């Protein structure tokens, strides 16, 4: 028969194991397609709206792109959060944010150029 001390130790191990198992199963679910689409649309919408507002048509597109990237930082971070949703570690979210942030100005400059083309080309849709 086990001593009281070994029973307490076994009970403590069982409680710890149950706690770890419960926490492992408590991670959030991955984002749905609708959530990812909504976050992406919000981010792109921010870039388009800022490009329309900030671009004078004469400045370098990358210069405007940097301003847009800074203006849409919150939407970019939300997109990264949604894309990384369900991952166990914040490291994944930070990697996604880093990836998006490192390309944000370049991506926004493409939006600027597309908006310039939309303004000057009557065949492009609104």
Written overview of the protein:
The protein has 126 residues and is mainly alpha-helical. It has one domain. It is 77% helix and 0% strand. The protein has five helices and no strands. Helix 2 packs across helix 3, helix 2 runs antiparallel to helix 4 and helix 4 crosses helix 5. It is elongated.
Gyration radius, rounded: 24 Å
Q: Kindly state the percentage of residues in helix.
A: over 70%
Shape, principal axes of CA atoms: elongated
Q: DSSP strand (E) fraction? A: under 5%
Kindly name the structural category: mainly alpha
What order do the SSEs take from the amino end to the carboxyl end, as H and E? HHHHH
Distance between the termini: 80 Å
Total separate domains: 1
What does this entry show, briefly?
The chain has 126 residues and is mainly α. It has five helices and no strands. Mean pLDDT is 81; it is low at 9-26.
Structure keywords:
77% helix; 5 helices
How do the strands and helices of this protein lay out in sequence?
Elements: H1 4-25, H2 33-54, H3 61-71, H4 73-83, H5 90-120
